[in-house]
Amino acid sequence: MKYLRPENLYAVAERLWNVQIENRDALKLIVEMDSPTALFYLDPPYPASTRTDKNRYTCEMSDNDHRHLGELLLNLKGNIVLSGYQCTLYKELFEDNGWQRIDKNTMANGEIKRIESLWLPPHTAHGNLRLVNDVKTGAKIGIRLANYLQIKCVLNCRCKYLNY
């Protein structure tokens, strides 16, 4: 964890220079920030059916919470990249509504082979084919997103609620 060393504090400060951090309900924030030039990278707690550790996250989400998130995402104008593990719930919410799923081999907890998936709605997948190809070939998604999209907002939501 190179950024935890004191000598790297200036690099961290420079990287965060134009970043705005919000500590509030992520779903309300998504609605407020939505526009065709926004990018939402969402990495919510994965559905419990896909995990062996059912209490891994500080902020858990029930299947109903995932359905509520799905309803919200299906109506956004902005670009969306959603991380998770393949499951029936996400197939129903996203793939059955035309979203593209991209699967990547990965390691969970540093030692367990898993296949992580990214879901992109048609307007994100079709408008950003270079991004999709990079994701498929192993490029780091976090670096590539901002490079390919003309964006004014990047929102990385890791929990349903950001209020702790």
Q: What's the overall average pLDDT, rounded? A: 76
Computed CA radius of gyration, to the nearest angstrom? 16 Å
Question: How does the major sheet shape up?
Answer: 5 strands, mixed
Which spans of ≥5 residues are poorly predicted at pLDDT below 50?
A: 146-164
Quick structural summary:
The chain has 164 residues and is an alpha/beta fold. The protein contains seven helices and five strands. The chain has one domain (21-157).
What features would you highlight for this structure?
single chain, about 160 residues, alpha/beta, disordered C terminus
How does this model look, in words?
This protein is 33% helix and 21% strand. The chain is an alpha/beta fold and 164 residues long. It has one domain. Strands 3-4-2-1-5 form a five-stranded mixed sheet. Helix 6 (129-137) packs antiparallel against helix 7. It is globular, with a radius of gyration of 16 Å. The two termini are 24 Å apart. The model is unreliable at 146-164 (pLDDT under 50).
SSE blueprint and pairings:
Elements: H1 9-15, H2 26-33, E1 38-42, H3 63-74, E2 79-85, H4 88-93, E3 100-108, E4 112-120, H5 122-125, H6 129-137, H7 141-148, E5 153-157
Parallel strand pairs: 1-2, 1-5
Antiparallel strand pairs: 2-4, 3-4
Helix pairs in contact: 6-7
